[in-house]
Write a structure and sequence with these properties.
With about 240 residues, the protein is α/β, with parallel strands linked by helices. The chain is about 40% helix and about 30% strand.
């Protein structure tokens, strides 16, 4: 059964969503991310994906206080990403309650540092962020496209022992137009050992069921929750039937 991971994206301490990573297409849904996280936990969810969008843009963690509030008000297992660029950033994330961190840009721009974090903290606490636009890995809050092609990029880190990968198809993110199932199937065919977390475009429970049927291990979803496209209680009951 696919692992369900609700998402909270944070700007200025608020729960928001962007469309295709565009900071000019921002919708604020709630003022308190911690309250949203508590509601997820009340339904029964155990895992949460938190993104510091200010951090991703600023190239350092900004919303550590919001992370701390979520971690202290819930027992959710939090994976946190956005702005983790230095040893200090990753230490801040773990100190404020993250159980895992999602790192993308540094894996492109400073592979040696990323590998050193894998060795220091353990690959099980690291998630490789593979955000894709036009087949290339995007970095720095999706503001820049690198020269890295997706599959060779994944090969490099699976060879180094990476197991967890969060892949976002940027053209799908926040659009509620359905996930890039074909892309995720290509990844799983090439690297069946990965714990792949699909992200972007989920618009309904049917989309999640389709990902489950395709054998995708996990899915992150956010906007469909806040726009009322997914009933979380129904989704939870389906997963636990």
């Amino acid at each position: 059964m696919i692992e369900l991971i609700p998402a909270i994206d944070i700007i200025n301490g608020q729960c928001v969503r962007l469309t295709k990573g565009d900071y000019d297409q921002k919708t604020v849904y709630r003022d308190s991310p911690a309250e949203v996280a508590h509601e997820f936990e009340e339904i029964g969810f155990e895992r949460l994906h938190v993104v510091d969008l200010d951090g991703a843009k600023s190239k350092h963690i900004v919303n550590s206080l919001a992370l701390h509030h979520i971690a202290t008000k819930t027992n959710l297992r939090i994976d946190f990403g956005g702005g983790i660029k230095t040893d200090s950033d990753i230490e801040t994330a773990f100190a404020n309650g993250a159980e895992m961190v999602t790192v993308g840009s540094i894996a492109v721009t400073n592979p040696d540092l990323f590998i050193s974090w894998m060795k220091k903290y353990g690959a099980e606490r690291m998630i490789l962020g593979a955000d894709v636009r036009n087949g290339k890995i995007s970095i720095n809050g999706w503001k820049e496209d690198s020269t890295e092609d997706l599959l060779p990029f994944l090969q490099k880190y699976t060879d180094a022992g990476m197991k967890n990968v969060l892949c976002t198809e940027i053209s799908k993110d926040g659009t509620l137009q359905g996930p890039a199932i074909e892309l995720y199937c290509q990844i799983m065919e090439a690297y069946p050992q990965l714990h792949l977390i699909a992200s972007g475009g989920v618009s309904s429970m049917a989309d999640i069921q389709a990902l489950d049927k395709a054998g995708i291990p996990a899915v992150v979803f956010g906007k469909a929750i806040y726009e009322g496209k997914i009933n979380l209680k129904e989704l939870w009951d389906w997963q636990n039937a």
